[in-house]
Design goal:
about 500 residues
């Protein structure tokens, strides 16, 4: 078991790094961007990013999960190649027609929804970035991840990161084009990466489509589309609502705070992606199924510890690295970190439902219910309390989603969880947050040192409440001298 978990940890670390460098690029260059982009620029970019993410979700028709699901269902390599070739042609043709329609006819619709950003500079680029990312950029990284080809996965993401950010720095910093240059850089990068993906896909798929796959593909994927719409409402609709009631400057501050939460979210998703194949294999392999409860506990430990880092430390990083115009974002971080923590915990029963039990019918209902709560709370509270209300409502809604999915999964999935250990872990994490927060009253660097010290002591709290079992305590006893020797 230990060997399997160590391998899982290595894969998770690789996927985490690959995802962060590809999608958390704006965070990595935060000190540079915040000095060349005003909060209003960040607000416009945040809205365009929201539109792009919605369109990626709609254009993909929920087929992201199908890569993993059907790869293991199809045993012959030629059948796999024909399946992925069919999927690729579907993603080229159908989203292409939708993108063209939105480009030609969508201006009045978007103008009615978003009054603070122009169609030409922000919405039209978002449409075509979404199309390119879906039609060419969806299959390669998911195929690499499904095969557990971590090297190829991270190389693909590194190429995306380098290309996108070099273009952003050139157009935003070098050419001074502001938020418009940011969107132009993303569009150019998406087009160039589409060429890279084209080369990869021509080697990996068969261009002899087997249209018989479309029925099973859509039968599996379309029930998940309302689920993805619900996730949009949970994670992105707050910006659409904020746009109606606050200025672009305030929306930009919220967008900056969300970028810190996004790095946490990407890390959580990467760890989730690393354990995802285990849930798929557990549908047929009893040995994999026996490992999952312990894997879920360790995954929860990692997600919770990282949540503490973000909730306690990100505010000091904002104050340290950004101009004063952005410092109000620090107050939003703890609530956004809590919402991502709930999202991370939700992935475990969600994987058990979709990949182990193959049960997808109830998922859209639960996601849309949580999303409806989020939208209703935002419409009620945002006009009065602004961005703070959006952050709090996000945490409430993801907590509701976590509870709903867990209750359904408990009745459908054969997997049991170490609930007592998880409860002790979350209780100590909440206590550590409450003990540390009053201490953060100094210079940002001093505050970060305090956070680091408290996190070093965090396992001690877990030890005191009996979180670790005998085998884990023995393993830690052997590990600690090695760590001490490295520090010496």
């Amino acid at each position: 078991m230990i060997r399997s978990l160590q391998r899982l940890t290595r894969l998770s670390a690789v996927y985490t790094f690959g995802d962060i460098v590809a999608k958390g690029a704006a965070f990595l260059l935060l000190p540079l961007y915040t000095r060349h982009l005003a909060p209003a620029d960040y607000g416009a970019i945040g809205l365009a990013e929201m539109i792009k993410q919605v369109l990626v979700m709609l254009f993909s028709f929920g087929t992201v999960g199908a890569v993993l699901r059907f790869y293991y269902q199809l045993s012959e390599e030629q059948e796999r190649r024909r399946f992925f070739g069919t999927l690729w042609l579907f993603l080229i043709i159908t989203p292409g027609l939708l993108a063209l329609g939105l480009d030609l006819l969508g201006r009045p619709f978007f103008a009615a929804l978003f009054s603070q950003i122009p169609f030409e500079e922000f919405i039209r680029p978002a449409i075509w970035i979404a199309y390119l990312n879906t039609s060419f950029g969806l299959i390669p990284p998911n195929l690499f991840r499904t095969r557990e080809q971590a090297g190829r996965y991270i190389a693909y993401n590194l190429a995306t990161f380098a290309l996108t950010n070099c273009l952003i720095v050139w157009l935003v910093v070098g050419q001074g084009r502001g938020a418009v240059g940011y969107m132009q850089a993303q569009l150019i990068a998406a087009a160039l990466m589409a060429v890279v993906s084209l080369v990869i896909l021509l080697r990996e798929v068969s261009l002899r489509p087997a249209w018989r796959f479309i029925g099973p593909l859509l039968f599996y994927s379309l029930p998940l589309l309302p689920h993805f719409v619900g996730h949009w409402a949970l994670s992105l609709s707050d910006r659409a609502i904020l746009e109606r009631f606050v200025s672009l400057e305030q929306l930009g501050i919220y967008t900056l705070a969300f970028q810190f939460a996004l790095v946490f979210q990407l890390t959580v998703q990467s760890a989730s992606n690393a354990i995802m194949p285990m849930f798929s294999r557990a549908a047929k392999d009893d040995r994999e199924r026996m490992l999952l409860p312990r894997v879920a506990t360790y995954y929860t430990f990692a997600v919770t510890a990282l949540g503490l880092v973000v909730a306690l430390g990100a505010g000091s990083v904002i104050v340290w690295l950004t101009p004063p115009a952005y410092h109000a974002a620090a107050a939003l971080i703890p609530w956004l970190a809590l919402s991502v923590l709930c999202l991370g915990l939700y992935y475990v029963p969600m994987h058990a439902l979709t990949f182990t039990a193959g049960h997808t019918a109830s998922i859209p209902v639960m996601t849309l219910l949580a999303a409806g709560i989020n939208v209703a709370l935002n419409l009620l509270m945002v006009p009065r309390y602004g961005a703070v209300a959006a952050a709090v409502n996000s945490a409430i809604s993801y907590a509701v989603l976590l509870l709903l999915v867990y209750l359904i999964a408990r009745g459908v999935s054969p997997i049991t969880y170490e609930l007592g250990r998880v409860a002790r872990l979350l209780g100590i994490a909440a206590l550590w947050y409450m003990l540390t927060l009053p201490l953060l009253r100094f210079h940002p660097l001093t505050n970060l040192a305090i956070v680091a010290g408290m996190l070093v002591l965090f396992p001690l709290g877990l030890l005191l409440v009996g979180f670790f079992d005998d085998r884990e305590r023995t393993y830690l006893a052997r590990l600690l001298p090695r760590l001490a020797a490295l520090l010496d």
